[in-house]
Amino acid sequence: MNILIIDDNKDITDAISLFAESQGYSCIVSNDGMEGCNLAKKENFDLILLDIAMPEFSGFNVLDTLKKDSNFDMKKIVVITASNLDKLTTEKIELLGISKLVKKPISLDLLDDIFSQFS
Amino acid sequence: MKVGTLIIISTISLVSISLLIPSVLAITSFSEEFEKTVKSDIQILTINALDKVDRLMNARIIDIQFLTSDFNLNLVGDHNSIKEKIDYLRDYEIQSQMYTSIAIYDVNGFKIADTRNLKIGSNESNELFFIEAIQGKIYHDNIPIESKSLGISIIHFSGPMYDENGNIVGVLVLNFSLSKIHDILGSDVIYSKPVEVHLISNEGLIIYSSHPHKGILTEVTELTTFQHFFQSTNMQISVFELTDEGEKALFSAVKQSGFQQYEGDDWILIFDIPSAVLFEERDKEVSIFMLVAGIILFMAITASFLIARKISNPIKELEREMKKVSKGDYEINVVLGGGTEIESMSKSFESMVISIKKGQKQIQNQIKELTKIDEQKDEFAAMVSHELKTPIVPIQLYTEMLLKGILGSLDDKQTKALHSIHTNIESLNALVDDVLDVTKLELGRLALDKKQVDIKNLLTESTESLKIFTAETKIVIELDLNTSGKIFCDPKRIKQILANLIKNSVDFVPKDSGLIKVTVEKNPKSFVFTITDNGPGIPVENQEYLFQKFYKIDTSPTRKHGGTGLGLTICQGLVESHGGKIWLDKEYTQGTCFKFTIPVVKS
Lengths: 119, 603
Prior knowledge:
The structure holds two protein chains of two kinds.
Chain A: E1 2-6, H1 10-22, E2 26-30, H2 33-42, E3 47-51, H3 59-68, E4 77-81, H4 87-95, E5 100-103, H5 108-118
Chain B: H1 3-68, H2 82-96, E1 99-106, E2 111-114, H3 128-134, E3 139-140, E4 145-147, E5 152-162, E6 168-177, H4 179-187, E7 196-200, E8 206-209, H5 221-232, E9 237-244, E10 247-255, E11 268-274, H6 275-278, H7 280-326, H8 341-404, H9 412-443, E12 451-454, H10 455-464, H11 467-470, E13 476-479, E14 486-489, H12 491-508, E15 515-522, E16 526-533, H13 540-543, H14 567-577, E17 582-584, E18 593-599
Helix pairs in contact in B: 1-7, 7-8, 8-9, 9-14, 10-12, 12-14
């Protein structure tokens, strides 16, 4: 299974990819929203873990861009955020057709659940 | 002008108006009295005038009685010849100056002598004056007769002529000229006013009229009114007010009552005076009074009206502006003049409103600032929570990977240290969430996601997620599922309340025999949640501060129990944002008992 992890915090992407690889998944990491978005469009990933609060090109921008691509399967996306999103924003994100929205902090158990759901 | 002055003016106006009332009464009574006097004066004048006519007529009867009496030897018998008799009568006629002529008729009605020598030998045996007199009566016409021979209206007075033996041998006739009556009524200055005088017979014919167009012995309808009136009543005098030729006029009428030998012929004397003339004086006075009264009334009313307006208009205006202010519109516009107290009141009001406006602006600015501060606080809390949670992610993930041995095997000391790190990270996570909740509750920005949920499911799900906290103990969480139905709430938040309360209990009950009971009862108004445990209970001295922020019963550095000290504060905030109440049941002695309510919402 190919996983794309988009998060501006390198420590987080390192930790998640380390765990994912230890579980036998192949991982590509991007610490920049724009770059991650391009990667997501270019290559065929099975799962994309997406952060929301990123400088310059945020998770919202990534979601909007990907949504415009009709060939792109939004179900592959799991949003992971540390922000305390209000109800409206949460609903708006969910309406884009993503798989699920989880809040930071995340545990290994949660990641394990997500991985097994997509593999 | 001061309001006081205005009130004085209106009081004076009022007094003036009230004084007018007795004045009007007085003038009315004066007017009536005047009218009465005038009427009675006229009546007396009329009676006197008619009396003169009666006396004149009486004198004519005395004349005929005297001339025909049996002791008047000048005319009785044959002492005197006819010529001597006529000479005597001519002297008499000249002396009295009342008669146009005196005539003697024989028993057959032939005129045998006349003082003027007119129509000697004419037969007038058909005339009433002859017929009556030949029978021995003293006679006179009760209406004047137009004499064809004389060409004037006359009244015949006649009586029988006797011989020495008392036999009737002829008739003596005095032709009394109507002009003598005219002289009496016309020559007199009857009244100081222009008066029309009419004398009418009992048949309604004019005997005399001062009116130039009312001919002698003609019938005048309006005057016969009086004649009809006297015929239908027993009255001798009367005063009428009639409309004559479009003008109101006073008519004073008197019927003849006779004098001595003269019994009267029911003639009626009428004085006719235009009311306007008669009451000119009074009307003048009344109209002057009315004019003055009118002016006073007009001035009083105008003054009152102006004063009322002067007082009420500014008050109305002030009221309108005050209403505006009471509705929250401070853009008032009080334009006043006149210098009354109301104006200064309005000015005070205006400056008051300006002060209020200023004050309000300040308050609004302060509110704006406070809102801004609140927003900053909210943003700050959100930012802090985000910034705190982000570094926790790798720490937690690496710790868990280390503990799971993914990154290689660890010895016991290392494992223990990592466990401690892991536990503290979880506490830190919980603290960040709690701080964020408290901030939101305090700012009133916590949005509830309310829906109808099944009460049993809610309770089951709440305790299910808490099992990990009791996993390594013998603590029992008992659920009373006897209450069923739907509850309208934010289920996530109710679960959070229950979790906070149960976790508190878990911390305090004995690990080997702890029992925590959760029950829900439904009463008409609310669901009552009760959480009891068999722990040590909360000391009385600590009960008061339970719901305060960061309040912990055990603050010693060596405390056994964790927690952020925000749990109960959050519980209270969440219950209250649902419209319910939370409290500690102090009467429960076997441990701790918390109760909270969530109102039943009828949908």
